[in-house]
Amino acid sequence: MSSAQSRLSQLEILDLRHFSGAQLRPLLRDEAERWQRRLHWDYTQASGMLLDYLDSRILPGYVALRAGQIAGYAFCVCEGAKAVIGDVYAVGETESTVNPICETLMDHLLEMVGAMPGVERVESQLLMFPDGALGEAFQRHGFKAYPRCFMLRDLQTHPPRMERDPVELRPGRSLVLEGWRPEFYDGAAQLIHRCYADHMDAGINDQYRTLQGAQRFLHNIIRFPGCGVFDPENSWVVRETQDRSGASPLAAVRGGSIEAVLLSSRVCAGVNHITQICVAPPLRGQGLGRMLLEHSAREGARRGVRELSLTVTEANVNARELYERDGFQTLHRFEAMVFDSSARH
């Protein structure tokens, strides 16, 4: 028996709901330190929310014990016919493709999810794990992999550049750039659905496929700290409006459909994460995406932001090349994993 097999034979896998937040707190503290070190991400607020859920004893999942000590955990969240893998972590793992404790936990978790009545789809985006990690566990359960990139732009190495403001695209129509306001919620959700309903990323996150799902997606990134704390002061919309006043295109004009959006969150002191950027299909290729990126970089730098991060599906070549031209570099490759029983019929 190899040393790895010996260590695994000493593991106990127990129901997560038998454990309190206090018992898991040291493990979550270790995980938060790793998020900070590897992805420049302060994970403490997300950990705090998770501790509350752990104390409620409602999260389905498992804990790995080794010699009576907590060595790892994994959990999922169920949303009707879909389950989302929330997290898997073990002390000393996630750095490479060899993660025996996490793989054991994932096998147990996926077996449990597969036995849940009514669950037809399972999604997972475990950002900390490099591509190829846990792949065997997911493959055994019939998942499809979508390679993704975690990209980072250092604003000191690649400082903001001055770009032209939105311009008039059609006679009698103009674009206005505005900071985020709550009344933009419905229009932004409509745009997200419009942009992604038939996009490759709808295969990764099925919330994009319906307007209700896009509303839920937007609600999650604004209200919950899973992707950082929403930063309305560095989130922007571009609206196309009838220019009746003769004012500057950047002047606030009431009304008008939202044609582009960039939303960002604070994930660490000096670091913003772009949680969403999209441009209406008819307006693509006219510089709006890059303008939003530059505007976010410029406004962020003015407020002390040193780095911007984002994630992108590797096969989305146009978007990835746009980010690379704008100074973003791939810091880390990971995989989104999806199981969809309906796709097999």
Please give a handful of descriptors for the protein shown.
Aminopeptidase, 345 residues, 13 strands, 30% strand, 9 helices, 13-stranded mixed sheet
Concise structural overview:
The chain has helices spanning 3-9, 21-39, 44-56, 100-114, 135-140, 185-196, 211-223, 288-302, 317-325, and strands at 11-15, 61-66, 69-79, 82-90, 121-125, 144-154, 173-179, 229-230, 236-242, 257-268, 271-279, 307-313, 329-340. It is α+β, with helices and mostly antiparallel strands and 345 residues long. It has two domains: 3-142, Gcn5-related N-acetyltransferase (GNAT) (Aminopeptidase), CATH 3.40.630.30; 153-333, Aminopeptidase.
What does this structure look like?
The protein is of the alpha+beta class and 345 residues long. The protein has two domains: 3-142, Aminopeptidase; 153-333, Gcn5-related N-acetyltransferase (GNAT) (Aminopeptidase, 3-Layer(aba) Sandwich). Helices cover 32% and strands 30% of the residues. The protein is built from nine helices and 13 strands. The protein has helices at 3-9, 21-39, 44-56, 100-114, 135-140, 185-196, 211-223, 288-302, 317-325; strands at 11-15, 61-66, 69-79, 82-90, 121-125, 144-154, 173-179, 229-230, 236-242, 257-268, 271-279, 307-313, 329-340. Strands 1, 2, 3, 4, 5, 6, 7, 8, 9, 10, 11, 12 and 13 form a 13-stranded mixed β-sheet that branches. Helix 2 (21-39) runs antiparallel to helix 3 (44-56) and helix 6 packs across helix 7. The longest helix is centred in the first third of the chain and has 19 residues, at 21-39. The radius of gyration is 22 Å and the shape is globular. The relative contact order is 0.15. The model is unreliable at 246-254 (pLDDT under 50).
